[in-house]
Design brief:
The structure is a single chain. By secondary structure, this protein is α/β, with parallel strands linked by helices. Helix 3 packs parallel to helix 4 and helix 6 runs antiparallel to helix 7.
Length: 337
């Protein structure tokens, strides 16, 4: 499946098109770049092959050189005015489809004025243009690749979202009651110690007694308060991030990788478990790992061999939430820390 379609007029920008195609193939792979002269097999019906390639493309790059607008046929008729012109058909098809259309202006060429374009091509004026100059080749190629990768990533995430988000999506199963109780106990003890420290301090001042008892009680109380309050603060931060991701994030399907057990932590004889999943970035091909919050029962039997939804921030893959609702519904003993 082609990810990038290169649209060009041969007597206008064939040299640029060939050089650009080689650059993109080197960076994206042969199967992700379509150029008519190389990717249409002999005997294939040309219009059909072009239409199929456009349908499967995420990005259409329209190369616009000095002759793109005013090129004429043997009768002197401007080619863009003819409905059967292949370049016109390609751009019309792309503007009406799902792909991101990028007008690429070659060596200082200006984007044609709207009144000089056929009506069906006039939306091209609203698309963000980029430049490709011989004098700044590497810089312009790098900028173009950034736009291509961003477009391919966004389209992949959007299509995945349409398939996997359901009404039952719930990335935050209820928390463990026992673990919550420990946090509340620590917070309550901290408050008691702080109050004791304050009272001891007042009495020490009134009766000129040693002050270090007040300092000990007060310091211990502050540490207990911090220890009890910190998990709630972190949980509140996670809830706010989850709320933001549910509103603005994008869901992806990840593959179960393994369950990790942290034996260094123990609460009431139980250790926390973590579900880890893997996902292949469709653009960079990097393998990304996601890790769930702590769970207080082994979820291996329920989580293995399945796809798990993760809501991500496309701009920062370190911000995500994993949908573990299927675990909670299957086994209420599995609860998030």
């Amino acid at each position: 499946m082609a990810g990038v379609f290169i649209s060009y007029r041969r007597d206008d920008s064939a040299g640029f098109a060939g050089a650009l195609e080689r650059e993109l193939v080197t960076r994206l792979g042969r199967d992700r770049v379509f150029m008519d002269i190389k990717d249409i097999e002999g005997g294939t019906e040309f219009p059909t092959a072009i239409d199929q390639a456009l349908k499967s493309s995420d990005v259409v790059i329209v190369l616009i050189g000095s002759r793109w607008l005013d090129a004429t046929d043997a009768q002197g008729i401007r080619r863009l005015e003819k409905p059967g012109d292949f370049v016109r058909r390609e751009v019309e098809f792309a503007l009406a489809g799902r792909a991101r259309v990028i007008p690429l202006l070659l060596d200082g060429t200006l984007l044609p004025a709207v009144e000089k374009l056929p009506i069906d091509l006039q939306p091209l004026r609203k698309r963000q243009t980029l430049e490709l100059r011989n004098s700044h080749w590497d810089e312009d190629i790098a900028r173009l690749l950034n736009h291509i990768r961003e477009a391919m990533f966004a389209l992949n995430i959007q299509e995945t979202a349409e398939k996997i988000i359901g009404e039952g999506f719930n990335p935050n199963p209820p928390s463990s009651v026992q673990v919550n109780s420990l946090f509340y106990l620590g917070l309550a003890l901290g408050v008691i110690f702080v109050v004791t420290g304050v009272v001891t301090g007042i009495e020490s001042f009134r009766h000129q007694l040693p002050w270090y008892f007040a300092l000990i009680f007060g310091g211990a109380g502050l540490l207990m308060c911090a220890g009890g309050a910190l998990p709630f603060a972190l949980r509140d931060r996670r809830r706010r991030m989850t709320k933001r991701l549910l509103k603005d994030g994008r869901p992806i399907l990840t593959t179960f990788h393994r369950v990790e057990e942290n034996t260094t932590i123990e609460v009431n004889g139980r250790h926390p478990f973590y579900v880890t999943t893997l996902w292949r970035n469709p653009v960079s091909h990097d393998l990304v790992q996601f890790r769930s919050p702590a769970l207080w029962a082994d979820p291996t039997a329920k989580a293995s061999d399945r796809m798990i939804t993760v809501m991500i921030d496309p701009d920062n893959l370190h911000h995500y939430v994993m949908d573990l609702s299927f675990l909670y519904h299957a086994d209420p003993a599995i609860r998030r820390l």
